[in-house]
Design a protein that fits this description.
Layout (H helix, E strand, L loop, with lengths): L1 H28 L4 H18 L1 H12 L2 H32 L9 E5 L3 E2 L2 E2 L1 H16 L5 E4 L10 H11 L7 E4 L5 H15 L5 E6 L3 H10 L4 E6 L6 H18 L1
Parallel strand pairs: 1-4, 1-6, 4-5, 6-7
Antiparallel strand pairs: 2-3
Helix pairs in contact: 1-2, 2-9, 4-8, 4-9, 7-8
Amino acid sequence: MKVKKIVMLIFAIIFFVLFIIFLLPVTVAGIINIGNITGALTTGILTAVFLFWNKFRSLFSGWWGNSKSRIAIIIICGIFFLFIIAASVISFFMIREINDKPKDNNTTLVVLGCQVRGNQPSLMLKCRLDSAYDYLSEHEEVSVIVSGGQGPDEAVSEAECMYDYLVSRGIDEERIYIEDKSTDTNENIKFSKNIIEQNGLCSDITIVTDGFHQFRADIFAKRQNLRAYNISARTQLWLVPTYWVREWFGVAYYTIFK
């Protein structure tokens, strides 16, 4: 009995820690999206279940004794099981795409936009730009497209912010092409392809974004008949769970409805 209580307590602690991690983006950076909402709700419920296991088991037994409640439980468990399978499959492909680096230098770099604060890049966008800068510094023959429009709460477009950042660090402005009309990842890739065709750039691209985002970007690249490689920026670890879960919904939505 003591062993069982210890095991339940360990699981409760694990899920509580995950609950805190999903809340961090909200408390630290004001980030609220379907990723941390889903993660916090799920881990919060699981924390309570394992912390009050005996009470939950008694409650569950009562529900199971009622035929209507039993059907509802079976349906909920079935949906949850399918969700876990779908999330696992999507995660497999997300992990696979993280390190698909270019085999040679004959590609066009495409940096995907992210939140701009004032006229400065957010932490996540700065990490993407730093990764792009490192690659461009080592491969001076490579051109780059900075892609991202201007949101209602942004002083400048994401593309303009990225352009200024790269130029300030010494990247030749003639190597940088601005795509500042896109509003999502699909348009990032679609409008960047237009720039590639209009300027005779290499049609093979290397996408610079966060690792969790690479799979969805690659899906859109394939839809545009572009061969895409990936360079993944460093993502702050405390942000990964939130955006990883968010990406499950993003991939599912764009696969089904777009």
